[in-house]
Amino acid sequence: MIISWIARIFASLASNRRPAEIAAGFAFAFLLALLPGGNLLWLAIFLLTFFLRVNLAMELAFLALFSLITPLFDPLLHRLGLAILTWSPLVPAFSTLYSIPLVPLTRFNNSVVAGGFAAGLLAWVPFFMVGLGFVSLYREKIHPAIAESKAVKAVLRIPIVSKITAATRKFTAVYRTVRS
Amino acid sequence: MFRTSYDPKHFEAVILRRVYVQSDRAFLKNVFVTGKDNLLSLRDGLTAEEHKRLRRLAKEIKQNRGVVAKGKLSALLLLLGGVIIFTVFFKNALAERAGEQLLAAAFGARADISAVIFRPLRGSISFSNLTVADRDRPMKNLFELGPSRLAVDTWQLVRGHLIVDDATISSIEFGSARAFSGALEERAKIPANAGNNVTAPPSPVLPSLQLPIPSEQEVHGFLSSQWDALSVPDHLRSVTEDARKLATTWEPALREAEATLQEAENAAAALRELRPSEINSLDDATAAYRTISDAGARVADATEEARTSLTALVAEANALQTEAQKTPQLLQADLSALYDRIPRFSSGGTELLSRIIEPTLTDRLGATYETILRMYRIGERLQSAFPDKRRSTRRMPGEDIVYPTVRLPRVLIRRASLAMEDGEKGLSITGQLTNVADRQELAGGPTTFEFSRTGPSRAVLLSGMFDRRPDKAERIQMQIETAGWPFSLRQALPALDITAISGTYSARTGFVMTASGDAGGSIALTLSDPTVSGSYAEQSLGDLLAQTITGNGTIRAAGSYSVSNGSLSLSNFNTNLDEAMGAVLAGRIDQLSARYRQELKSQYDSQIEPILGPYRTALERITTLRARTEQATNTADDDESLIAQKKEAVDTRVAAIRKETERKVQSELQKKADSIRDKSNLPKLGF
Description:
The complex is a heterodimer.
Chain A: H1 2-14, H2 19-34, H3 40-51, H4 56-69, H5 74-85, H6 91-99, H7 111-148, H8 150-156, H9 159-179
Helix pairs in contact in A: 1-9, 2-4, 2-7, 5-7
Chain B: E1 5-6, H1 8-15, H2 22-31, E2 32-34, E3 40-42, H3 48-63, H4 70-107, E4 111-114, E5 117-119, E6 124-127, E7 129-133, E8 141-145, E9 148-152, H5 154-159, E10 162-169, E11 172-174, H6 216-227, H7 232-272, H8 282-325, H9 327-340, H10 349-385, E12 411-422, E13 427-437, H11 440-443, E14 447-454, E15 459-466, E16 474-489, E17 498-514, E18 519-534, H12 541-551, E19 554-564, E20 567-575, H13 576-680
Parallel strand pairs in B: 10-12
Antiparallel strand pairs in B: 1-3, 2-3, 4-7, 5-6, 6-9, 7-8, 8-11, 9-10, 12-13, 13-14, 14-15, 15-16, 16-17, 17-18, 18-19, 19-20
């Protein structure tokens, strides 16, 4: 499973997929990781990515990765969220939102949710740009360099790595077949 | 696949821009060549491998088009459409199922709804019948509703809140029988007697309920308990003892005085022989005087001595008899005190009524109390059925900002009304329920209820509120008013040979349960046209009760009660039955009192008699002593009188003798003087 996921990520990185799709997966992963789960907002954003051209493999992989570290930011997110939620100019708007059916299910009135959402939105564009740059860099520099390096070729001969490579190729083939 | 020719700008924008791998871009630039018309087209002589690569690239270019996954979105829209169509077609069945599950969770028993019609756009749910089984009696329904209509907030329903703005119910029935068990699966094991009312054990109160009928033993015991407080026994003992001492002391003295007086009387008797007429000379007179003087001195001495002693004796006897004369008064005072201390038979009236009424109230109020608690528990179950849980997470919980807006509970019935008319039976039932909610604090107020059932001859009005808001002290507040309901009390009456007490009753009950679980209230009962049937004997306790109940026409009772640990106790209970009972009891009490007094007097007399015997004997001795003393005194007086008479007679005789003697002497002297004058011719002397 893990191998499959890794293969999927590398396949998408090395394939002809649009860099923005991968970068969006990266950015959405961070946004979703910052948001506490179990609310409609998280679910809505997660479902949104299903209907946008976002690389889900990248998103899920980085979501798992970011979720390990984002709880560390919770105190900051709480303070940020509290500042937003109690900012008097916004209180009437939040009160209106709070009265709208279903909206309270987003738990936007929770300080950590609000802080995470705000921070995630702010970080989305930088993360997206970073993702774009990384994909370009990977495709133009890293991937060819790695592919041609002797060390990688040696590593590729290691059974587990060869399995990953095979899986990547296989997945890429299947991926292309399915998508076609 | 690719088109046959491309404008170079279009090729750059549509094809090359969507190819991100440099080798693929180079490949495309290689296979597309500029023609004579300045258009890009595939060169000839492409290999199979190049065709394959072109097909792959064409697909990837197509997939890289746009930011929305149209295929997935279409699938989602199809799915949503299917769900909507399914919901529209099966909305009634879904609503029925959801409603049954909701009610089952709320009431802890099976719920069935039939012929549900759900109109989401109109916001209405109607059904023809709804039954909710009684959790504790699975073969009975807790309630059964007839055709009803609910006005629901569809938006809130989507949010997961069942908000019923108005419920109109055409009929309701409580405790109707079920054809099958209403227990939920986990409660399917029903006791054999489930669904039947368990007969309460007979009250242990009435069989022990007896008026204090005086018995000899009771009088004896009562008298014994009071004996030390009585004054007569000590008084009698004191007088008897004093009389004994007096008699013992004075009897010898009296005998001595009597002997002395006897001697004086003997002396005086000798004087009786003295005949003054036989005294013819001074010598005789002198002798008579001497005799009289001796006898008189002797009698005077004896009389004086006797009188001195007897005067002291009489004084002491008088004092004793004066003391003895107090005895009747003391006896009466003691009896009065005893009568006053006789237990008051009338004090048992209220207690008697309370003991009779309490089991009935426990049954009637207990059932109501259980119903109320059950309804309250249903509210609690509603709350627990939809817990306000927060999912546990390793994330920081943060702080929820509650904005000034209305939060709604999961289930809220703002108003439910019931109006039912039965022309044939002349029955009218109305009811109203407001603010039924799983979370009372979000409902904006307590659950209030009003229920009125008016028939041709009877009526019941029930109103009150449940308040489960944490900051409220009173949890349940209720008033029940009933009128014209048949009353039939059979419980525990056979002990009094009474079959039943019947009539019609009206009641007004207040009930309050606080947050701490303490409950209590007031109750006022009126029993009209009471009748008592049974085979009780005349003058029996049953007869007493029957006379009391039927003799007053209307019986009223009022008091307060409290419920603690499931048991009901009455306090401050008062009733006109007590007065009625008092009136009936008065005659009985008079009889009982008379009997008791009679018995008490008899017992008192029998106990005082052993003391009175010596007392009387002692007093008789004193009386005898006194009589003897008086007799002796009289004898002395007679003797003195006799002596005085004799002395007077002797004095008279001596005077007569003196006169005779003087006359004789004068006559002799005259004669001698006459003779001398004659002899000397002297004039007469004129004697």
